[in-house]
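Bench notes, afternoon.
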Amino acid sequence: MSKKFIISSLAVLLIGGIFMASLAKGMDSNKDQKNVIYYDNARNSQIEVTFYKKVAQLSGKNFGKLKLENISTNEGISYKNERNNLILSENNNEVLISIGEKEVFRGGLRRNDPKDSLTKNIWLWKDLILKDDVLLKPINSVNFNLSFSSDGKILATTNCADFSGTYELKENAINIINLAQTKKFCDNSDGEIFSQSLKETASLAFDENNNLVLFLKNNAGSMSFSKK
């Protein structure tokens, strides 16, 4: 066996050893990898974050996939995407995401059942926003109440009549059906708009103050409610 062959073989073994050590080190660093799903129940939004030693990978419906660099300070763990001016801060299993000075996500590990928030409150109708940005408000929102029971029943009161019916809820999709008016006749515009809009409801969400928003079918608009 020639010296040249032996030297070449040793070189191959050495390079191979370095490669395997490097690979092992890379695999070892994956032990610091942590995948977490966070829920923003107010915005009905969900994200997944993979944390590494120096970076984080953010993915979600409203964010796409973004790589963020660790900018941790004494105040906590933070990651930033310079291009989008997006900062993600994590503390005690809660995440806050802001773009510039605007908060766009705040959530934790627990996904709330929307039915819990829906049924534990009586809701006062605040306004109706149509897709052409027309804003309609009742003369007196106190007269327009909406309540949902845990057994799938709905009760609505207006300034001229009451309505009752049933609803079906699956995640954030809601279908209000069999909404019928009481014997008292309702012929004013506010009452008519209120009841007809309820029949066209397609989905729901809760805003940052946990107030109810009902979205109409075909993106026709949305109804906002506050807690009574």
